[in-house]
Amino acid sequence: MVSKSRYKATECEKFFAEHYLVPWKDRPPEIPSGMADTGKDFHHWRAWCVARMADDCTPYDQTWNQEYLKTHTVTAEARELIEDDWPNIDPETILAAELYLTVGRNGEPLTHEPWSLDELPERHPDSWAGGIIDLALMIDAENISISDYKTGWSTSNIMPDEGVPYAMAMFAHYPSVQTVYWQWDFVRLRLKAGREFTRDQFDSGELAAIVESWEQRQDKLRAKFDAGESMTANPFASSCAWCGLACEHRQAFRTELAFPPPATDEDARRLAGIIQAAKKYEGRARDQLHAYLAEHGGSIAIDGDTSASLDSYETRRYPLRSTLAALGVELPEKAVDWDVPLDSLTISGTELNRMAKTKKRVGMLDAIGAAAQTGAQTKLNISRATLDEKRGAAA
Ligand code: SF4
C-alpha cells in the first residue's frame, strides 16, 4: 500500500523501517510526542465539528469550541488551536470528515470507510494507494475539495505531490468528479495552499506513475531492510518533529534537553545554561560548516528538500562624515567638547533607508549610496525548499 504518510516516512530510513517494516510485536515503545498528540486532538475536534455541521445542516457556531473543551481532554497546544479555530465551511457541501479511501492498482475503487480516529478501519486487501481524507467538500457534482490539516508551525514540510493518492481515490470513487482541489490547511498560521488535479491526469496514468515512483522508493528500502543493512536515521526528515523513536539524534534532545516549564530557580538556571551551551555549540558548528562549504563549492544537498548553502549578500557601511556630507552637512575635524574620533563613527543603514523611503526624499538613497562603503559577506543557511521551489523542481 502506498500513501502520503508512508512516502514521507521514507525520508528517514530508520523511521520508515520501525513504523512500516518491523513487525508490530517487535516495535520498541515510542517516546510520547506532544506534537503528534496535538495533531490528533485537533483532528478529533474538527471531525466532531464537521459531523455536527453536517447533521444539523448549520454553519459553525462560535460557542462550540468551549462546549467541546468542557467534555474532551486535549493537550494545552490543541486547546489553544481549538479556542482560536473558526472552520468556515458551507454545511451543504460537506461530503465527509476523516474518510478512508483506497484504490487498486488499476484505479478501481476499493476501501470507502469512515475513519475512526481511535480504530483502524478494515482496508480492502487489494488496496494500492489511498489515505485518510481530513475533510472532503462536494462543491458540485464535478468538483471536490479535499483538505489536509497541518497543525505544526512549518509550511515547508510538505511535498507538491502529496495529494496524489487522495485525488486518485476521489476520481475512482466519485465518477462524476472532474477536478479535485487539494488544500493544505495550516491551521496554526491561518494559511492555505493548494493545487488541482484533473480527471485527465487520472485517466492517462499520470497520477499512477507518481504513486509507482513512491512505491519503488518503498521497495528499495524494504530490500535494504530485508538484507539486514542498517537503516540510516535522517534528522532532516519531515517526520522528525513528530517522531517518537529513541534514535541517536532524538535521544539527546529528549533526555538532555527536555524543557518542562521551570518551577524553581534551579530549573530556571538550568534553562539558562542550556541556552548558553546551545548558542556556543551552534556557533562552533556553524563556523566549521561555513569553512567547509567555502572550500567545497558553497552548498550541499543534505537530504530530500534540505540543503546547506552559503548565501552571498552585500554589506553597506555608512561612515558618519561622508554620509552627512552627502546629506549636505559638513562635520568639523574634531568633536567640539570631547576628543571623539568622528571618522570612526557610522550611521545606522536601516534608519537611513527607512527615512529615504518618502516622497519628499527622492534621490536621498542614491546620495547616501554613493557615500557608503560596500563589501561582501556570506551567510550560512540550512533550509528546506519552499513549496514554490519544490513545484519548480517537480515541473
Ligand atoms: S527522530 Fe528523526 S532521525 Fe530519528 S528516527 Fe525519528 S525521524 Fe529519523
Give a structural overview.
There is one protein chain. With 395 residues, the chain is of the alpha+beta class. It is globular, with a radius of gyration of 27 Å. α6 packs across α8. The protein folds into 2 domains: 4-226, no CATH class; 308-384, no CATH class. The strands form 2 sheets. The protein has a 6-stranded mixed beta sheet with strand order 2-1-3-4-5-6. Strands 7, 8, 9 and 10 form a 4-stranded antiparallel beta sheet that branches. It has helices at residues 4-9, 13-21, 34-56, 64-71, 76-84, 164-173, 199-203, 206-226, 248-256, 265-295, 320-326, 349-356, 364-371, 387-394; strands spanning 94-103, 109-114, 129-140, 143-150, 179-186, 191-198, 299-303, 306-319, 346-347, 373-384. It contains 14 helices and 10 strands. Helices cover 41% and strands 22% of the residues.
Q: What brief labels describe this structure?
A:
2 domains, 395 residues, 14 helices, 10 strands, six-stranded mixed β-sheet, alpha+beta, four-stranded antiparallel β-sheet, binds iron/sulfur cluster, globular
Q: Nearest-angstrom radius of gyration?
A: 27 Å
Note the gap between the termini: 26 Å
How are the strands ordered across the major sheet? 2-1-3-4-5-6
Into which percent range does the helicity of residues fall? 40-55%
Write down the overall mean pLDDT: 87
By DSSP, the count of extended strands is: 10
Uncertain parts: none
